[in-house]
Design a protein that fits this description.
The structure holds 2 protein chains of 2 kinds. Chain A is about 75% helix and about 5% strand. Chain A has a domain of about 220 residues. Chain A is globular, with a radius of gyration of 20 Å. Chain A contains 15 helices and 6 strands. Chain B has 2 domains: about 150 residues, Rossmann fold (3-Layer(aba) Sandwich), CATH 3.40.50; about 140 residues, Response regulator (Rossmann fold). In chain B, the strands form 2 sheets. In chain B, strands 2-1-3-4-5-11 form a 6-stranded parallel beta sheet, with helices on both faces. Chain B has a 6-stranded mixed beta sheet with strand order 7-6-8-9-10-12, sandwiched between helices. Classes of the chains: A mainly alpha, B alpha/beta. Chains A and B meet through helix 2 and helix 13 of A and strand 7, helix 7 and helix 8 of B.
């Protein structure tokens, strides 16, 4: 038990070190960074902002991790967010009860997942191309739903998902924490995680050994669609409106980055959802840190890129091997 | 549905006013970029309304963001022998050939909302807003409203490097020059979107002592302001009172915020570019009066005193 916990800690070490260093850096340029207070019955502060604003990418990263573990990739999640947000807003404007709105949005996400899964697992199209279809078409579909305008709504229940609070935490934070833990338990407390890794490492061998590969791939893309639907609900509820042009724009890339920063290989196989969530928080910490630092906006992307490069270099196999080599020497 | 209702209203309106409109039975081609934003959709609606009001037969072509579609549309307008062409060019370059063809066919071309890099004898006139002036109007409003009291301003910029972001920033800073009571303490990009506007405003509020140091917000467009207003409310402050909010564009939702007292002022980027264009065309066709090469649309300032609820109702149906 202790041994497995230690191994888990070792797996997460690079991400946690990177996150700590970034948080300390932000604290250096902005001393009030760690201060927190209770306002309107909830925690209020920059650290909470990171957890809150990181919610969409964290949710997407959960689904993306599983898809990438099967040696796939899902480029459509940003567009699926826009579609699901648009569906939710349209349903709310029509006056549907909250539960119908939520079911419609989540159902839409699952249908998008089924579409991707069908292209990948049944038709055997390469995932990057298969999901590109929906990435390109998705925003058009979302615009059809919103009729090209930003569709605003006033349903307090739906708005609660974006800006409400539960147990002192903003609702988006609660959602991604609970969802992330639930999926982790699902794949790690059952054989599911191992089967996913097996498919990612060698699809043919997995099929021959009796794994229902098409079903598993379909499920992975459906999970990704579900994650995108929840993320879409959050961003839509957050601004009380569905913005088909901008909701989730480029977030698929941030989600893939979160998975990579989390140390999961794009070649499939071993994966860690917790590490991807840490990766998502690293990305959001960088974003929030840049905003707090007060640098001119022209520097935003350069700073972000520089930090990401440093993290990836530290995580690279060569550097890791070197570190292990040196640390062993010094211990002896 | 809303859109159709608005159109049919416009038709009835046009029918009533038809008698008074003097334009002869003109046929005009209109090549629109597409419908990438609410403002663009409103421009299309208003152009159609203006044409109907004047009894003009408007041939509408949606280019879906592609220049080759616009060139095709222009060629087909020329082949049909229309009386004039309105075009909102998607890019600035590559128009010389088709504009020369229109000139050879003696069809006047009017540019709407954007300009082109061609020689100015290839088109009749260009009707656009002045982005620097818009920022200037917003800045003047803030100078007048604060009336010499010290005020820290935070700025939400548009997409970094885009011309509206550069020009609206420039105009605002020009207006603030010489008024040392006004200081821009923070300036970041919100990418013209609500989500980013809200996120960036949250960080401004944290960075400036929970917002107590901020007295006004200037946003390069209304959508970012709408997002920021939510962030201000969630921080426990009153937008419009604790923090003044001034932005640009005049989309319907900002009037709703103004009616609720949560936004203070907005500068209109009018979607009615066709009105001045058709006026100029009328004069040109009647007695050959050549209009100026650039017609600047009015950048009108709206405040809470302008009955925002009524303007919201009016603007809602335009397809924003």
């Amino acid at each position: 038990m202790i041994e497995s916990a230690l191994r888990f800690g070792h797996r997460l070490l690079p991400q946690l070190v990177a996150l700590t260093i970034i948080l300390l850096l932000i604290w250096l340029v902005f001393p009030g960074f760690f201060s927190m207070e209770i306002q309107n019955g909830r925690l209020y502060g920059s650290v909470i902002d990171i957890l809150n604003r990181g919610a969409p990418v964290a949710l997407l990263a959960v689904g993306m991790t599983v898809v990438i573990a099967t040696k796939g990739i899902d480029l459509s999640v940003g567009a699926v967010m826009a579609i699901c947000g648009a569906v939710a807003a349209a349903s709310s404007v029509r006056g549907d009860p909250l539960i119908v709105t939520l079911l419609l949005a989540i159902g839409t996400g699952l249908v998008c997942g089924v579409w991707n899964g069908f292209l990948v697992s049944v038709l055997n199209i390469q995932p990057i191309i298969a999901t590109l279809v929906l990435m390109v078409a998705g925003r058009g579909i979302a615009q059809l739903v919103t009729e090209g305008a930003i569709l605003t709504f006033n349903d307090p229940g739906l708005i609660f998902i974006g800006s409400g609070a539960f147990a002192g935490l903003p609702m988006p934070v609660v959602i991604w924490l609970v969802f992330g833990i639930a999926v982790t338990l699902l794949v790690r407390r059952t054989a599911l995680g191992m089967l996913i890794e097996a498919v990612g490492i060698n699809r043919r061998a997995s099929t021959l050994s009796g794994i229902q590969t098409p079903l598993l791939l379909m499920a992975a893309y459906m999970l990704s669609g579900l994650c995108a639907a929840i993320a879409g609900l959050i961003v839509t509820a957050d601004i009380k409106g569905a913005d088909a042009n901008n909701a989730g724009l480029w977030l698929e890339l941030d989600a893939i980055l979160a998975v990579v920063v989390g140390g999961t290989s794009l070649l499939g196989g071993r994966f860690s959802i917790i590490a991807s969530l840490a990766g998502a928080m690293i990305i959001q910490a960088v974003n929030t840190g840049i905003l707090l630092s007060g640098f001119p906006p022209e520097f935003n992307l350069i700073i972000k890129a520089a930090i990401i490069v440093i993290i990836l270099v530290i995580q690279s196999p060569r550097v890791q091997a070197g570190v292990t080599f040196l640390s062993r020497k010094s211990v002896r | 549905m809303k859109f159709k209702n608005a159109l049919s209203c416009a038709t009835i309106l046009a029918a009533c006013m038809f008698g008074s409109a003097s334009a002869a039975d003109l046929t005009i081609g209109f090549s629109q970029i597409g419908s990438e934003s609410g403002w663009r959709a409103a421009e299309t609606t208003l152009t159609k309304q203006q044409a109907e009001k004047r009894g003009i037969d408007l041939k509408f072509a949606d280019a879906q963001q592609k220049q080759e579609n616009q060139i095709k549309a222009l060629r087909s307008f020329i082949a049909q022998g229309v009386d004039a062409i309105l075009i909102a060019p998607v890019v600035a370059t590559g128009w010389d050939e088709v504009l020369t063809e229109a000139k050879d066919a003696e069809i006047p071309v009017i540019l709407l909302d954007r300009t082109v890099d061609s020689k100015d004898d290839l088109y009749l006139t260009a009707v656009t807003s002045d982005l620097v002036h818009e920022g200037n109007v917003a800045g003047k409003w803030l100078v007048d409203t604060t009336a010499g009291k010290p005020c820290n301003v935070v700025e939400l910029q548009g997409t970094t490097g885009s011309s509206p972001a550069i020009d609206r920033k420039k105009g605002f800073e020009e207006a603030l020059k010489g008024h040392d009571n006004l200081k821009i303490v923070r300036s970041q990009t919100g990418d013209f979107t609500r989500t980013k506007g809200k996120e960036v405003m949250e960080s401004f509020l944290k960075a400036e002592d929970g917002g107590k140091n901020i007295c006004a917000l200037y946003a390069h467009n209304d959508d970012m302001a709408v997002g920021a207003i939510q962030a201000i409310k969630e921080a426990g402050l009153k937008p419009g009172k604790d923090i003044l909010v001034v932005s640009i564009d005049a989309v319907p939702d900002i009037f709703q915020a103004m009616a609720a007292g949560e936004a203070n002022a907005t500068v209109e980027l009018t979607p009615n570019m066709a009105g001045p264009a058709l006026d100029a065309l009328d004069a040109f066709l009647k007695d050959g009066t050549k209009p100026a090469k650039w017609i600047q649309t009015e950048s009108k300032l709206y405040t809470q005193a302008d009955d925002p609820q009524k303007i919201y109702e009016e603007k809602k149906g335009l397809g924003y």
